[in-house]
Each structure stands twice: as C-alpha cells, then as structure tokens.
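User: Fold this one for me? It's Nucleolar MIF4G domain-containing protein 1.
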Amino acid sequence: MASVSGQLEGLYMAHSRKDMNDTLTDALLSACAPDTAMPSRLVMEHVLLLSVLHHTVGVEVGAHFLEAVVRRFDAVYKNGGEGKECENLLTIVAHLYNFRVVQACLVFDVLKKLIGTFTEKDIELTLLMLKNVGFLLRRDDALSLKELIVEAQAKASEASGKFQDQTRVRFMLETMLALKNNDMRKIPGYDPEPVEKLRKLQRALSASSDTDTRLRISWDGILSAEQTGRWWIVGSAWSGAPMIDNSQQKVLEKQPSGTVSGKILELARKQRMNTDVRRNIFCTVMTSEDFLDAFEKLLK
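Assistant: Here's what I get for Nucleolar MIF4G domain-containing protein 1.
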C-alpha cells in the first residue's frame, strides 16, 4: 500500500490533477462498483488508498471521487436496478466515512432518505450502512442516531401492513436498538477488526498530515454542485448561483499579470500548484515587491 500510494503521489506531482482525479475515479469505480456483489475487504482496501491520497495530496482527490460515487448511486437508485451496484456504491460511501474522508452528516443524509421512502430495497441498504458504520455514527453523533431511530420506528409503524414479510423490518429496528445500547453482540456477523487494522495502516501512511481533512458536505449539496458550486474545493470553477446569474457562462480564471519567468513556473510546478488559480496566486506572491504590491496584483 505504501509503495502504491507513493507512486500515485508522484504521478499527481507530474500530471494535471484533473486528469489524475478522473483516471483514479474511473479505475476505483470499475474495481469496486460492478453490478455483482463485491468482497467487503476489497472495497475497504481501495477506499483506504483513496483516503491516503486525500490526506497527502489534497482534499480535492476525495471530493472528486465522492461526487462521482454519490451521482452514480443517485442515478442507479432512481433507475431501480436489480443488481448489486447500489449496495457496492453505498459500501464505498460507508468506508469513505470509516476512513475519515467525509463527516457523519453525509451518512445521516442518505440514511434519512432511505428511511423516508422505506421500501424493501431501502431497508436492505439501511442495514448495510448501519452494519458498516453504525457504531462509529453512535460515537460521533449519538443524538442524530437517536433521532434517526425514532424516525425509523415511526415509519415502521406506518408501514405495518405494507410488507408481507415483516422480518427485515424487525431486524432493522433490532439492529438500531443494538447500536443505541452499544451492544455489538446483537448484530450478526459484525466484526470491527478489519476496519481497525486498516485505520492503523492509514494513520501510518498519513502521519505527515495532522490536520482534519474530512469533508462536511450534504448529500443534496453534492447533487446540486453544478448549480451552487463546489464550495468545498478551494479554487474550483463555479458558474454562479442561480439567484444571481442563470446563464451557463463559466467564470474565466485570470492569468498571472505580466510576464512570469520559466524558473518561477517550474518552482510552482514543484510546489504542486497544478491549477490556474494556484499558479496565479503563487506567481503573484513570488514576484511581488512587498505585501502591498501582492495585494494590488491579486485584486486585478
């Protein structure tokens, strides 16, 4: 894992981040989200690799992958596919939370949506998510988990005659109560050890990054990113909020004013300034006489 992540970091330094993000996302989704059931361990290891790059390269790595996963899940879920792609994509989201790429709010968002519609498929997906991250949710936000359980109990009462077989509904409620009471024994097949081992490996590989890089994004915020902007990525392109401008015209990024030497541009590349905005700011700061000169140039 250390060798692979190190090689990918080198590729990120040598190539466009957009191209790398697109390629990495396509490769991970092809490996982890087919239409057939995937081994949980395999999905965990792929998401672990992504989480290491999220910490060492930059949050845009995890943000790009997360957006692709959420959009694909939304499309597959709405189409009502009978394969296992929905389950695989939701497992990816669960492990993005396990490995600290996203915060709990995103997981609660998708659980609330599933409980809100409350079909047999939704119950299966809810159980899958709770089995993977339920106890971590309890540790991070016990109050929100309690509110979710109350909502699920109310939905189950309303839908008492909706399902011919009430077994899965009862099992879901029993699982939620086990989480509430912190009783791992009542969840069949629950084994936290594989995730804990990979978390230790993640901490070792991301030791140089001691900042909290978890993304605090809502589910709907990701789906509406084309209209409201990707505010969670510094320097990302944005077409403007609808209430300000309904046109599809993109905001043009300004190029560094004046001429910039090849030496400065090469230094910018070595410092991982791989977007126009980053290069622009870096070159401005490096070529300014003082802070006032830099301030005036940045305003232009």
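One thing worth pointing out: The chain has 15 helices and no strands.
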